[in-house]
Specification:
about 50% strand, about 5% helix, mainly beta, Porin, disordered N terminus, about 450 residues
């Protein structure tokens, strides 16, 4: 509690004029504070821009985060396991340093500490990592002009592409995702492209005990073309390798290739995000043939008080058509943003048909309130259901029922300042015919989450 009070006090002491200059991003390494070079020296500026050379091309920038979350979950798995009601606390602390050595070389490092307290069943894989390195990479820029740049990045790094349906840093859970490897990025006004090869070392809960990802488990190419003011196009190829992948069809080695396309524009009143993907490869001695698609359409009413926004999202993600036929049809969402499927999602993006209408509005300048409903079905009756991360959850168990259940959710976001944010979320999950047919005593789920985040 003392740490929280200090964070809030420090935030309030930052002058409003300086806060407006802050450029906090989801990926902290995307922030650029070189614009503070000629500004008046203050304590805040000395943290964000510390010159190490006379004319300023060599400088240090520091930043950090403290996040405090209280969760209450009731019937996480609808009574299929004895979770019951759990009340627990999550904490996350991150500190980073960004060293620019002239205009061609840069070193970025970030430490994280994520803690869990109170869960009777212990921390989930997304909850705890006492102290480890989140980012540690070097950037080299071999080519740069006024409109184009090529960057080579080597080391531990976070990745996030598109809407986060296939590769996302996963900001929602207590542990953000990272990889070890190399990336080459080309950027220009109209076109961006990244090529990368990465390893994923996994998580242990101790201090500096996470194994490094030395074997290539993720590789690919991701490009974005800003075709016009209203049309943006993403095209990508992604490859993944896993030694013991678990599906309702069984457990085996998996080598999967994904071809994906995205058509989108989220900057105007009418917003759309259309995505499709096809997967092929091998699963054990068999083949992979899977697919997925999503349509997300919304409209912001700029002329109305509070700028209300209506949104309709639908998803169609393949499941396995027939067990033991030598072909796995279950979509692997790779490393998705679980929050894409709701505030506190339970059904994940594999073997899924979902429909998600929602409404959001701003009752006050810094407050956003949203409410929505998610209807969930199994795409294939021969396959079970999966968690938001894509991990296998419950088997089909021979059930001929398709409907999984209905989520009713609401969320409040209060942007107290550019540095301080509060989020409250609630969700009620009403079990459907499928869960009622395979769980002996099915129970509806109820979830509450309260989160306060401070960033500088």
């Amino acid at each position: 509690m003392m740490k929280l009070k200090i964070a809030v006090l420090f935030c309030l002491l930052i002058p409003a004029k300086l806060s407006k200059a802050q450029n906090i991003r989801l990926m902290r390494y995307d922030e650029d504070y070189s614009g503070l070079k000629d500004s008046t020296r203050t304590f805040y500026h000395s943290i964000k821009y510390l010159p190490l050379s006379q004319n300023g091309p060599t400088y240090l920038s520091f930043g950090g985060e403290a996040r405090f979350e209280t969760d209450r979950s009731q019937n996480e798995d609808w009574g299929s396991r004895s979770f019951g009601t759990q009340l627990f606390v999550l904490q996350r602390y991150q500190l980073h340093a960004d060293l620019h050595l002239g205009g061609r070389v840069r070193i970025f490092g970030q430490l994280r500490s994520a803690l869990e307290n109170g869960r009777r069943t212990g921390p989930r894989p997304i909850d705890e990592d006492q102290l480890n390195v989140q980012n540690l990479f070097v950037d080299v820029i071999p080519y740069r002009s006024s409109e184009r740049r090529v960057t080579i990045r080597l080391g531990r790094q976070e990745l996030q592409y598109g809407s986060g349906r296939l590769i996302d840093v996963q900001e929602g859970p207590n542990l953000r995702l990272y990889f070890d490897g190399a990336k080459v990025a080309y950027s220009s006004v109209k076109f961006n492209a990244d090529g990368f090869i990465m390893g994923n070392g996994g998580i242990k809960t101790g201090i500096f005990d996470n194994p490094s990802g030395r074997k290539a488990k993720l590789w690919g190419l991701y490009s974005t073309w800003f075709a016009s003011r209203q049309i943006h196009i993403d095209l990508s190829y992604l490859g993944i390798s896993r030694t013991n992948a678990v599906f309702d069809d069984g457990t085996a080695g998996e080598r999967r290739h994904t071809l994906a396309a995205r058509f989108w524009n989220t900057a105007s009143a009418f917003r759309y995000n259309l995505e499709t993907s096809y997967q092929f490869g091998s699963f054990g001695n068999g083949k992979i043939r899977a697919w997925g698609g999503s349509a997300d359409i919304g409209y912001r009413f700029g002329g109305l008080k509070g700028i209300p926004a209506l949104n309709l999202r639908s998803d169609l993600v393949s499941g396995d058509r027939k067990k033991d036929d030598g072909i796995l049809n279950t979509m692997n969402p790779l490393y998705p943003n679980g929050g894409y499927f709701g505030v506190i999602p339970q059904a994940g993006p594999a073997n899924l048909i979902s429909l998600h209408p929602s409404l959001a509005w701003n009752p006050a300048e810094k407050v956003n309130v949203s409410a929505g409903i998610v209807y969930n079905w199994r795409q294939s009756l021969e396959d079970g259901i999966y968690r938001p991360s894509g991990i296998f959850n419950l088997s089909s168990s021979g059930s001929d029922k398709r409907y999984i259940g209905t989520s009713y959710m609401t969320m409040l976001t209060w942007n107290i300042s550019p540095h301080l944010k509060y989020i409250f979320g609630a969700q009620y999950f009403s079990t459907g015919a499928y869960l009622e047919s395979i769980v002996s005593q099915p129970r509806d789920g109820f979830f509450l989450a309260s989160l306060l985040a401070f960033k500088i």
